[in-house]
Design brief:
The chain is an all-alpha fold and 252 residues long. It is built from 11 helices and no strands. The chain starts with 10 loop residues before the first helix and ends with a helix.
Length: 252
């Protein structure tokens, strides 16, 4: 006797079937754990889907683990349905439109998901101010990196001086926890790249101290141009994206 899973011929059907499995489980029904594992494993094995597969699917290897996750995250069936549909629809849309690569995550998107009320707010402010207020944008670009580092250190339960710490030290602690310190690698190319990342952080800290608006400035001081602010904002966003992506990869 044929089972429902034997009629599945493509990845769109697999995602739809997986969606039906988790929706059923999340709303009090029973599902076949082997089916969940098979769908999950097939999708995770495809590198083209890596950026679109929800973190909870990567972490919950069987249906019982998923059940513990979803029942603690939401108390009502309605909330669970909305969440699961929203989480899996991007993957369905990607497969349906026959894209060859997933859409690149924008810095804005990742910062928004990492901390909507904090980091995303300062990112938006930096974008708004980089043309009309370069000094302010440079100051905010450092705040973005500080916020990302502090969030990661808090998540890793690492103690640090909350009120008086330089961005270079914050990054050093964060890089160590994420295995991104140059001295944690032996390959020359990785040491060079990771050393360059440290240099970017130190440069942003110096740029903010010299040209930002946090400490005031002399009337004769050279004013930063919008292009300087754009460089600072983009570097801060890129480094933040790299740190967040590394953190999520380790935690998944």
């Amino acid at each position: 006797m044929l089972t429902e899973i034997e009629f599945i011929n493509d990845d769109f059907d697999r995602v739809e079937y997986l969606q039906s499995l988790v929706l059923t489980k999340a709303t009090g029904g029973e599902v076949d754990d082997n089916h969940y594992k098979e769908m999950r494993q097939h999708l995770i094995a495809n590198p083209n889907y890596s950026e679109l597969i929800p973190r909870w699917l990567k972490k919950n290897r069987n249906i019982d683990q998923f059940w513990l996750f979803i029942k603690n995250k939401f108390t009502t069936y309605a909330e669970r349905r909305v969440f699961l549909n929203d989480e899996l629809n991007p993957l369905l849309e990607f497969i349906e439109t026959n894209q060859t690569l997933p859409p690149a995550k924008s810095i804005d998107e990742v910062l928004s998901k990492f901390d909507a009320s904090g980091i995303h707010f300062v990112w938006q402010k930096a974008l708004e101010r980089k043309t009309q207020d370069p000094e302010g944008a440079i100051t905010i670009s450092r705040s973005i990196l500080e916020s990302v580092c502090k969030h990661i250190l808090h998540a890793k339960n690492i103690e640090f001086n909350e009120t008086n710490i330089e961005i270079s030290e914050l990054y050093r602690l964060t890089a160590k926890e994420l295995n991104l310190s140059p001295d944690q690698h032996s390959e020359k190319i990785f040491k060079q790249i990771l050393g360059g990342c440290s240099g970017i952080i130190n440069g942003l800290g110096s740029l903010r101290n010299k040209y930002g608006d946090a400490h005031g400035s002399s009337p004769r001081a050279v004013k930063p141009k919008p292009r300087h602010a754009e460089l600072a904002v983009n570097l801060a966003g890129t480094m933040s994206l790299f740190l967040i992506s590394t953190f999520e990869a380790i935690e998944s």
